[in-house]
Every structure is written in structure tokens, then in C-alpha cells.
Amino acid sequence: MESPAYPLPPSVHALPPSSLDLRPDAQIDHAILHPGPITSEKNIWFFWHTGFTHMHPYTRRNIRAWHRRFSRSGWTIRVLDRQPSSPLNIENFLDVNDEATFPRAFTEGVIGGEYAAQHTSDLVRWPLLLKYGGVYADVGLMQIGDLDGLWNATIGDPASPWEVVSYNAGGPSSRSLTNYFLCAGKDNALFARCHKLLLLLWAADGGKSSTDGMCDSPLLKGVPNMGGTFSVPGIVQEDGTRIEAADVGRLLTDYIIQGQAMTMVMSCVDEDDGWDGPKYCAEHVYAVEYMQGSQLINEFTAWDGEKAFRLMSLPLPKEEEEESEEQREARLIVEGCLSRSFGFKLAHGLIIKVLGQTLGSLWRANEGADDVPGTYAHWLRHGTMYWCPDELPERQEWQVEEPIKRGPLLREN
């Protein structure tokens, strides 16, 4: 666990060693693979279809860091899977045959399409939070800020009005929560409705086996398609076929259909159900702006994954060396993330087709590149485990916006 003596960035403090689990990796892995019984809402949920031991090394390092940082504050890391006979199989935590919990395609194991694994994990997030509470995070999310402190100031405080914590991919008047970090107590009113809507989208046409075309559902009428912040000329697929720029937004929307469901629920007033989404959001959602909060490396590099990989792979200058321009860029990235961000999401999946290789995909392809002592990547990893920003992330000030829909959430108008 020893690291070079990296400089502590401004507005960042070192954590007391007593607050960290600094045992060897093998013992940390054993703890992750053998979590105790569920006794509170302080659960940090992850899902990897083939289980923790079959994850990519850089994402296993992510999970270990979550455990080292937060287990001594009462949090339990739980990496669930779909492996037969595994004690961490999702079926040991949720009824996979309950049609009010999972769509038929999940139950029967027939979810198809290029991103079947991602959509499988999408379907376990809300059910886990609704039944047990806590945090659901993607395995590619590197935690930086004080999760326990934010929980205690929001969901974990009975006097707090904040019932949901997530990142918001937009300004204060936008309702576009990301699904890679979702935080709530049990039986949350927002997520309960989101999950019911998502199940209806999967049940359309007698039961879908993929999310293809879900963006056209009348149940989502009025919710803008995703991808508006990206300008791309189109996508040439591996088989040579081309997806024109006009269709990229539809492709992204189908890929992140869970986000569309959240936006509709947050933007719907259903008087029959007693639900006022815009009012609930303004009063009960602690939304953190996502670029600074969880995508800051991409802001520094303009979503250029190869540049991010190159900069993070550089060695820090030795004591007598002058800092190069690229080393300065890399230093500003690391200092910025560790002082200003709450996390960093390593992107994978469809985003690679849209924007090219990402830092996450290149760490996957270059095993161990994220963990070379003396590099900026290793400095970043060191900081996510041993240090913490001085401040909790700010909440966007949300007002009560005009709804997209007035009428029954779960029926077409």
C-alpha cells in the first residue's frame, strides 16, 4: 500500500489512517466476497454479471478503494452477480421471478443486443435501493469525496429534506439525473415510480428483449432525446454500416433509457397518484452538477480519451526536473479532481462509438496503466484512497419547473 510522497493539493486533507482499511488486497477481496448480513441502509451496491473476481483489474481497484475508504464508517460493499451457486447472485437478494421487480427478459435471461450486460445492470439498481436503501454505483466510478459525510447530511439525517442524491447532467433547470450514482433510502417515492415506468417500457409489444426503440414510447412523449451536448458526424459500425448524426441521439437515448424514465417521472404531475415530480425534485433531490462533480477529466481534455490516457500515464517530474507543459496539464487535472470533484466516472459502452476511446477503455486495454507508481494516474488513485476534499459537493438550486406531462404517469395521454 506504500506510494511515493505525492503532493497534497490545496483544499484537500489527509484522512486519519484509523479511518481506512489498509490490509493487503487479498484480505480486502475476501471481505468484498463475504459481506455480512444487511443490517442498515448503508450499503454500496455494485453489479458485475460474472462477479468481482472476473472484473477488469482497474475496476477491482476501484471497488477496493470504496471498501478501504468507507467500510470503517459502517458501509458494506456488495458486488452482486448472476453466477449460478454464487452467494452474491442477485436472486439471493431480490425475487427475480417477480414481474413487479423484473421484466420477463431479465427473468428468462434473454436480454439481447450489444449492450445486454449494461441493461441487465440497469434493471437491478432501483429494486436494490427500494428494498434495502443505500448507494448504487457503476464499477467504473472512482469515489473522491466524503460519501459518508454527504449521506449523514442528507438521506441519513431524519431532519433533512433531501431524499435522493445523484449527479445531474444539465443546469439547474434541467432534469437529467445520471444512473451511475444513485443514492436513496428504502422505498423512495421517486425511484419507485421510475422503476414502474421502466418496467412498462420493457413490457411493451408483449415484452421486449432489448431497449431498441424504447425512446419512441408514447410513455416518454415530450422528453428530449439525449446527445444534445455532443456534436458528432455519425458513427461507422464494425460491420461497415453507418448511423447518421440525426440518429445518434436516438441510439444514446435507447442506451440510457433508464435516464429517460427518471426525467419523465421528475417532470410529471399525476394528480390521480398524488405525484408532483417538479415539486418533489425542488424539495427533495440533492443534485450535483455532473461535469465538475464526476466528469472533470473530460472537461480538461474536451472528451479526448487518448489525451487523458497519455497525460495520466506520464511520470511526475523528478525533484530536479522542470515540469513540462503536458505534466502541468496532468497536474492540473489531478489537483482539480481531488479538490473539486466528488467522483470520476470512467466511461465505457456506447460512448466509445460516439466519441472514440475513453480513459476507461484505454485502462482496460492497457492492464496496469492506472497503477504505475510515480505517474499522474497513480497520484489520482492515491488521493482517492488516502485524501478527501475539504468540502462536500454543492447542490444545484432547483426550482419548481413546468411539467412535461400532466396526467397519469403510467398511461399514455
The CATH topology of the largest domain corresponds to Spore Coat Polysaccharide Biosynthesis Protein SpsA, Chain A
Name the structural class: alpha/beta
Global geometry: globular
Q: How many E strands?
A: 15
Cα-atom Rg, whole angstroms?
A: 21 Å
CATH architectural category of the largest domain? Alpha-Beta Complex
- What are the low-pLDDT stretches, counting only 5+ consecutive residues below 50? none
Q: How much helix is in the residues?
A: 25-40%
Strand order of the largest sheet: 3-2-4-7-6-12
Protein name: Capsule polysaccharide biosynthesis protein
InterPro entries: AfumC-like_glycosyl_Trfase, Nucleotide-diphossugar_trans
Pfam families: Caps_synth
GO molecular function: glycosyltransferase activity
Verbal overview:
The protein has 413 residues and is an alpha/beta fold. It has two domains: 255 residues, Spore Coat Polysaccharide Biosynthesis Protein SpsA, Chain A, CATH 3.90.550; 94 residues, no CATH class. Helices cover 37% and strands 14% of the residues. It is built from 16 helices and 15 strands. The strands form five sheets. It has a six-stranded mixed β-sheet, with helices on both faces. A three-stranded mixed β-sheet has the order 11-10-15. A hairpin with a 4-residue loop joins strand 10 and strand 11. The protein is globular, with a radius of gyration of 21 Å. It starts with 11 loop residues before the first strand and ends in a 7-residue tail after the last strand. The mean pLDDT is 94.
